[in-house]
Amino acid sequence: MASHPVQVIAVTGGKGGVGKSNVSVNLGIALSEMGRRVVILDADLGLANIDILLGISSNKTIENVLQGECDLREVMVKGPGGIKIVPASSGTQKLSQLNPMEHAGLIQAFSDIGDDIDVLIIDTAAGISDTVLSFVRASQEVLVVVTDEPTSITDAYAQIKLLNRDYGLFRFRVVANMVKSPQDGMALFAKLTKVTDRFLDVALQYVGAVPQDDAVKRAVQRQKAVIEAYPRSKAATSFRALAKKVDSWPLPSSPRGHLEFFVDRLVDQVGA
């Protein structure tokens, strides 16, 4: 298993459509530009979309790894900016309902590549399914993506509440996505903290905001990451600023490799 530190970040948010995959991909590319070796796991195991988002085709997916037909290195595809992507299998219901052995096998496969990466970004599915919760609970950092919509704030609060109340998670990082201004991003964070401070014992930390930018829409239409297609856009600039903050996050001290820590925690959960 991995012997060097690997930062494991779950990008999540209770509601669908808040831009988790866009945040995952562009943050990953920005970190790669800084010299970090980044792998993104498309952990929306039933409705995968990162390969579609980036116009990447893959002959093999996580399903092939689960079936023992290949190892993880054979599944990983090269993405923009030097990142590597582990695609899931879109529309495969079986992958959204992994049994404990399959789930453990999936994560065990990651231990074999630990020495080759610095950052593992987990792009989770929407909602609070067991699979989503397992990935989030096992990660070192939880990055919650919210937008200025009542349903987004409500669903993010529900997810944070569940993870805190039932699983003891305390620290959550927050990104305000698709906001009109930096001030709106801070105001959105204030809305979320107003309810969490009142009802939960958690620490929310504001990472920053990604502006509403037509360049993002144009990039999606071109099946490219905005940081690649429009590197000087407001959104691309904000993703690079986010990456600098993420790169400054300390790795937790552990006598074991940090990807091994992630593997152990997840295997313990699914085996319980």
Automatic annotation (TrEMBL):
The protein's UniProt keywords, in alphabetical order, are: ATP-binding, Cell projection, Cilium, Flagellum, Nucleotide-binding
Q: Where is the signal peptide?
A: none
Q: Which domain of life is it from?
A: Bacteria
- What's the name of the protein? Flagellar synthesis regulator FleN
